[in-house]
Amino acid sequence: MQKIRVTIWNEFRHEKKVPAVAEIYPEGLHVALGNGLAAEDLEIKYAALDDPEQGLPDDVLASTDVLLWWGHCAHGEVRDDIVAKVHKRVLEGMGLIVLHSGHMSKIFQKVTGCSGTLKWREIGERARLWNIAPTHPITQGIGEYFEIPHEEMYGEYFDIPKDGNIIFIAHFAGGNVFRSGVTFERGFGKIFYFQPGHETYPVYYQEEVLKVIGNAIRWAKPVFFRELSCPNYPAIDKVGE
User: What is the mean predicted confidence (pLDDT) over 202-216?
Assistant: First the structure.
């Protein structure tokens, strides 16, 4: 069995500075995700903003089939040349899963061409995520909906491209709704944005959340890697006399 090579990239700042976050994720959000996603068909490694080359040197990107991205307070510190390399790799076939506050990350803005802006409110309200694409590979095993007891509210308007395929819509206890699970395709790569995962709540220990992310990894794995080019292409058939 050929394993899917997964890199979980985490800003990894809140866990070091905020005791409430460190209590929930003592080894970091990325490690909690990796532990929860562990499976025989996945080869998981970790990367963080403060690692050499911000965790994404060329050899790591070259050996990654699917990249998970979680960032929040340090989007601006991610180097533009790193973003450009990740973007190129996505176009060549690498899967990209952007989680929660990664909606404002440079890489999400790059692959979507949009700002990723939205409304938010942090009061720990219930979120109910409705599965509106029951035949999609990412929603398998989820059922009609699932609930997250306490989560940060994200609300519309969400500035993302109109070509996104919406597979989850969230309703929050305070009344807002949100396109909480959306897929895109760019070049040869598949992209999934998934809203749950605020750092002050134990969302990445919840079975349904991990199920969705695991499904997304398997959906986003590359069919192949191929560099995009714009060649002068010879005619296949004889043209004219």
Answer: 98
Nearest-CA neighbor of 192 among 240, 137, 122, 155?
A: 137
How many whole angstroms separate alpha carbon 231 and alpha carbon 31?
43
Instruction: Give the strands of the sheet with 189-194, arranged side by side.
Output: 42-48, 4-10, 66-70, 95-99, 189-194, 177-186, 165-172, 119-131, 145-155
| CA separation for the pair 191, 158 (Å, rounded) | 16
Strand pairing class (66-70; 95-99): parallel
Cα torsion 13, 99, 95, 214: sign? positive
Instruction: Give the lowest-confidence range in 10-14, 113-117, 233-237.
Output: 233-237
Q: Report the pLDDT value the prediction gives residue 241, as an integer from 0 to 100.
A: 63
CA distance 196 to 129: 9
pLDDT at residue 69 greater than cutoff 90: yes
Nearest 5°: the CA angle 119, 124, 126 is 90
Q: Are 9 and 70 in contact (CB under 8 A)?
A: yes
pLDDT mean over 40-58: 98
Residue 176: predicted pLDDT: 98
Is it the case that residue 240 has pLDDT exceeding 90? Answer: no
Name the 3-class secondary structure at 76. Answer: helix
For residues 229 and 241, give the distance between their C-alpha atoms in angstroms, rounded to a whole number. 30
The amino acid sitting at 112 is T
What integer is the mean pLDDT of 28-47?
98
* Alpha carbon separation from 16 to 7, 28, 40, 198, 241 (Å, rounded): 21, 8, 30, 16, 72
